[in-house]
Amino acid sequence: MFKGWVIDKIDGRQTVALQNIDEARLPEGEARVRIDWSTINYKDALALTGKGPVVRQFPMVPGVDLAGHVESSSDPAFMPGDAVFVNGWGLGETHWGGLAERASLKAAWLLKPPAALSLKDIMALGTAGYTAMLAILALENHGLKPGTDTILVTGASGGVGGFSIAFLAALGYKIIASTGRMQEADYLKALGASDVIDRAELSSPGKPLGKERWAGAIDSVGGHTLANVCASTRYDGAVAACGLAQGMDFPATVAPFILRGVTLYGIDSVYKPNDIRRTAWERIAQLLDRTQLERITHERPLADALTVAEELFAGKVRGRVLIKIDA
Ligand code: NDP
Fold first, then answer.
1. Residues 6 or more apart from 11 whose CB is under 8 A from it?
2. Does domain 2-116+297-324 bear CATH number 3.90.180.10?
């Protein structure tokens, strides 16, 4: 038996509980992993609270991220005792995920941590840190340059936002942070933002084109915010869209794209091929500042997962929550 959160649907109603689960119920997979760390991402909070249609099959163990040690593997690439981690690949959506003491996984999903990062570091960063780096790679490939270019980061007090600011600052960009929590301005400046703006400036319907304010942006918010972000991106600039905390809609016009040559990049972390994942994690390992990692992350036990999910939607979670699994 092992402990894990289970989301189920009974008579059309979603249930969620921390349960003792028989190992025989684990899904098929080449590798059996003892989980040491997991996290609560926005998507996990949607799944746990039932606020969004994240879970595709019931019963489901939530948790899009996990890190731990291999107990057994039929794939020779992994030996018992190997430290491994997984981000995405449908964990917590179509395959049992990380908010549990055990997982059974496809070997193709497992990565070994870069030398400079522990499993705990990797889960503190989690999908949020890795997605922030995917967005930065897209902006770099577009040609944005530190020193000269200003980048806007929306959803700044969240996980993707916090790591985006910390990495961009380490690279030398000037950063504008947009937040609904102006009381967190000191925290955002300590991460590396030079300016902090109220997200209300961007969250209502705006004009097709605004003043050119930034060369690039990392947006985890969507909705009117993303439309306004594009409208105020400078000529030939780029926006990396990765989230929908305000909404799934995109009520924009084509004006920024056809009159200013702005490029909108879509960022997906879930099904990214492993070579790009490795590149992203190596860059993170090079750039990571441990003081910033500690500033962004808070640790909670597995039993608190549902409470953390509720706190996240109440705007009470700053940065990232790392979940310690005591297997
Ligand atoms: P968090 O909850 O940690 O951060 C989201 C932040 O968005 C909040 O902290 C808040 O920041 C802001 N926000 C919340 N509600 C609203 C609102 N109604 N209007 C405007 N801003 C709002 O989530 P994550 O950082 O983990 O994820 C952010 C988004 O990115 C989510 O939508 C998530 O699903 C998505 N995501 C996508 C990935 C991908 O592969 N594409 C991977 C990872 C995440 P503040 O208080 O500072 O305003």
1. none
2. yes
